[in-house]
Design a protein that fits this description.
17% strand; alpha/beta; 13 strands; TIM Barrel; 8-stranded parallel β-barrel; single chain; two-stranded antiparallel ribbon; 306 residues
Length: 306
C-alpha cells in the first residue's frame, strides 16, 4: 500500500460527454461508487457566451452550445442512486445565485443525501454569465464573500440575520437546515491574495488549487494556508487542499489511469488532502465507460485505496 490523500474524487464532465444524456451520468455515478472513488465532482455554467477562447486554463473543451446540466439538480439525481460517495461541485459559480436561494438549495440537497454535500466555489471566468442573471461582473469577489457568509448564517441560525454591501436580510427562517451541523464544507478555488486567504480562513475548510498549476503552487499555497489557519487559531490539520490529478501519457495508448495514479502520492506529500481525477482524460464515449471503470476499480484496489 502506498501513501494516498484522504480522498480520490471523480470529476464528471457535463452532459455533452460522455454519451450526451443524463442517464449516462447516473450510471457513471453508480460505477464511481462501486469502483471505490470517495466522491464525484460536477461543473457549473448557468449560460455560455460566444468566447470560450477566453478560458484562462488552456483550450476550453466544448463549444458554447454544449449542454451543461444544472449542478444541484444533477447531484440530487446522483444522490438518489448512490449511498456513500460525497457530492461536490467543481466549481459552483456562487455569485450567480441569490444567497438565500443558494442556501436553501444546498440545505435541501444535504438533507436528501444524508449529509453528503460539499461545495467547491469560485467567481468563474466568463463575464457573460453575470449580466445574464442581473449581477455585476465587477462585484464578483465581494459577491462571493457575502454569498457564502450569508449561507453560513442561514445554515447555522434560525432565525438568521445578515448585512453586507451586497446581501442583507433580518430575522428570516430557512428550514430545513443542513444535516451537517455547520452546513456543507466549502472549498474556494481562487488565487491566494490576502483577501482570498482571509476568505478561506473565515468561511471555508480549504482551497481548490487552480487548474494547470505547478507543483510549486501547491507546496507554497499549502504553507501559506497552514500558517494562516494557525494564526487564526484554527487547527492546520483540518485544512483541506484539493489538487487535480496529472494525466500521464502511456506511449502506446494515450492517458492511462494506472500511470496517472503514480503522481498522486507526490501530490499528497506536497499538501493535497484530496485529488480530483477528470474522467474526460480517459473516457471519450459510452463504449469506454465500462472498460475504464474496470481498470479504475482494479488499480485503486491494487494501490490499497479502496
Amino acid at each position: 500500500m502506498i501513501e494516498r490523500p484522504a480522498s480520490i474524487l471523480l470529476r464528471i464532465p457535463h452532459a455533452s460527454r460522455p454519451g450526451g444524456d443524463a442517464a449516462t451520468f447516473l450510471r457513471v455515478a453508480r460505477e464511481a461508487e462501486d469502483a471505490g472513488f470517495d466522491g464525484v465532482v460536477v461543473p457549473d455554467h448557468v449560460v455560455m457566451g460566444k468566447r470560450p477562447d477566453r478560458y484562462p486554463w488552456g483550450t476550453f473543451a466544448e463549444q458554447p452550445d454544449a449542454p451543461f446540466l444544472e449542478p444541484f439538480v444533477m447531484l440530487a439525481a446522483i444522490a438518489a442512486v448512490t449511498d456513500r460517495i460525497r457530492l461536490t461541485t467543481g466549481i459552483l459559480i456562487a455569485p450567480l445565485r441569490p444567497a438565500a436561494l443558494l442556501a436553501k438549495a444546498a440545505a435541501t440537497l444535504d438533507v436528501i443525501s444524508g449529509g453528503r454535500l460539499e461545495l467547491g466555489v469560485a467567481t468563474g471566468w466568463q463575464q457573460e454569465e453575470y449580466p445574464a442573471v442581473g449581477r455585476d461582473w465587477d462585484d464578483r469577489d465581494q459577491l462571493l464573500t457575502d454569498t457564502v457568509a450569508a449561507c453560513r448564517a442561514l445554515w447555522t441560525s434560525s432565525p438568521a440575520s445578515f448585512a453586507s454591501s451586497t446581501v442583507t436580510f433580518s430575522d428570516v427562517y430557512s428550514e430545513p437546515r443542513p444535516v451537517q451541523a455547520h452546513g456543507p464544507a466549502v472549498l474556494f478555488s481562487t488565487g491566494l491574495s490576502a483577501t482570498d486567504v482571509d476568505r478561506i480562513v473565515r468561511l471555508g475548510v480549504g482551497w481548490i488549487v487552480p487548474l494547470a498549476s505547478s507543483r510549486e503552487v501547491l507546496v507554497e499555497g499549502t504553507a501559506i494556508l497552514r500558517e494562516a489557519f494557525a494564526t487564526a487559531q484554527r487547527d492546520p490539520g483540518t485544512l483541506r487542499i484539493r489538487a487535480h490529478s496529472v494525466a500521464r501519457q502511456n506511449r502506446d495508448r494515450g492517458p492511462r489511469f494506472a500511470e496517472s495514479l503514480e503522481a498522486i502520492p507526490q501530490q499528497a506529500s506536497d499538501g493535497a488532502t484530496e485529488v480530483s481525477v477528470p474522467m474526460a482524460d480517459f473516457v471519450r464515449d459510452q463504449d469506454d465507460i465500462t472498460p475504464w471503470f474496470t481498470e479504475a476499480r482494479r488499480e485503486l484496489s491494487r494501490a490499497g485505496w479502496c
